[in-house]
């Protein structure tokens, strides 16, 4: 389509809605408040249109349901992977698209804009009253460990067998670190920021796999989440829990009033997957009326993830 055709269509839509959707500047366009308000419903309409086409299409490539999830890094290699595996085993035709979630503060915006229907983030959500309509489901705990390179001739250590260590005790320990990311608790972020100038950065890498590999090669110690720490321990790394960064809960958040059938199916699968926990979550709360908030469902899940 030509630019003029698109412009005419946009003008026609604005006239029909009686609202200006874009600020037009010399260098381009940006969404107005009305445009932002339309963005989420428009994406949901398109998503439901694709699902309607899939329901009647004979083309298997066109008939695959799609689920969009936005996730913080700690959730990707932990409980979310387990829930996704169980969901895809039961729904092998579904395609899952996972987007990066920059911080838990972005959860409400991501859901409202329709970028994703489910977010996997740190809980509880600290998003104020705007997040009251969201339902949540804790999946498990996320701990942080200090992983030291293996010592020659020593047997592989078991995760968490060494005493906890604080950031202040790492001031003279060379580390392989990643660029700062808002994935920990606020208190932990404050601790890292306070200790940052005193930490010895031997290397800063962008890939999580590189950080672990370099630690195992003996370049320097590093900080690892629960799942990667357990894998590193099997390779001989010596682990110690990082004091102040244990028991961080990760889980799902979604808006029951706008969730598509695929999203609701995923939520039901997530509840079923966590039902094996001694502290099994309660079933999801029903969607509230349009003029009232939805009740959050779920209770803390087994921290042994």
Q: Can you tell me the number of structural domains? A: 2
- Across the major sheet, the strand order is 4-3-5-12-6
The end-to-end span amounts to 50 Å
CATH topology-level fold name of the largest domain: D-Maltodextrin-Binding Protein, domain 2
Low-pLDDT residue spans: 182-187, 278-305
Question: What is the CATH superfamily label of the largest domain?
Answer: Periplasmic binding protein-like II
Helix share of residues? 25-40%
Write down the secondary-structure element order. Answer: HEEHEHHEHEEEEHEHEHEEH
What features would you describe in this structure?
Belongs to the LysR transcriptional regulatory family. Residues 277-305 are annotated as: Disordered. It holds the Pfam family LysR_substrate. GO terms for molecular function: DNA binding; DNA-binding transcription factor activity. This is HTH lysR-type domain-containing protein. The chain is an alpha/beta fold and 305 residues long. It folds into two domains: 11-141 and 250-276, 3-Layer(aba) Sandwich (D-Maltodextrin-Binding Protein, domain 2); 144-246, D-Maltodextrin-Binding Protein, domain 2 (3-Layer(aba) Sandwich). Helix content is 34%, strand content 21%. The chain is built from nine helices and twelve strands. The strands form three sheets. The protein has a five-stranded mixed sheet, sandwiched between helices. β8 (174-177), α6 (186-195) and β9 form a beta-alpha-beta unit. α4 crosses α9. The N and C termini lie far apart (50 Å).
């Amino acid at each position: 389509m030509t630019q003029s055709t698109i412009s005419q269509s946009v003008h026609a839509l604005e006239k029909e809605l009686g609202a200006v959707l874009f600020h037009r500047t010399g260098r381009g366009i940006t969404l107005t408040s009305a445009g932002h308000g339309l963005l989420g419903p428009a994406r949901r309409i398109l998503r439901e249109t694709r699902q309607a086409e899939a329901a009647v299409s004979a083309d298997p490539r066109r008939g695959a349901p799609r689920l969009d999830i936005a996730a913080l890094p700690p959730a990707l290699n932990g409980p979310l992977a387990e829930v996704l595996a169980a969901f895809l085993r039961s729904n092998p035709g579904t395609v899952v698209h996972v987007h990066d979630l920059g911080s838990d503060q972005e959860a409400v915006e991501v859901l409202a804009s329709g970028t994703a229907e489910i977010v996997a983030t740190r809980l509880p959500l600290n998003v104020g009253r705007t997040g009251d309509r969201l339902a949540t489901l804790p999946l498990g705990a996320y701990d942080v460990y200090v992983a030291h390179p293996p010592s020659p001739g020593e047997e592989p250590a078991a995760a968490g067998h060494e005493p906890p260590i604080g950031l202040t005790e790492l001031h003279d320990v060379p580390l392989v670190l990643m660029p700062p990311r808002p994935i920990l608790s606020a208190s932990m972020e404050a601790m890292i920021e306070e200790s940052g100038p005193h930490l010895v950065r031997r290397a800063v890498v962008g890939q999580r796999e590189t950080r672990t590999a370099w630690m195992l090669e003996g370049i320097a110690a590093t900080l690892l989440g629960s799942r990667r720490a357990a894998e590193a321990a099997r390779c001989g790394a010596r682990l110690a829990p990082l004091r102040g960064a244990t028991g961080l809960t990760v889980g799902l958040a979604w808006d029951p009033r706008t969730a598509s059938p695929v999203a609701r199916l995923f939520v039901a699968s997530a509840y079923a997957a966590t039902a094996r926990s001694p502290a099994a979550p309660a079933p999801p709360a029903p969607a509230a009326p349009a003029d009232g908030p939805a009740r959050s469902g779920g209770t803390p899940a087994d921290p042994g993830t």
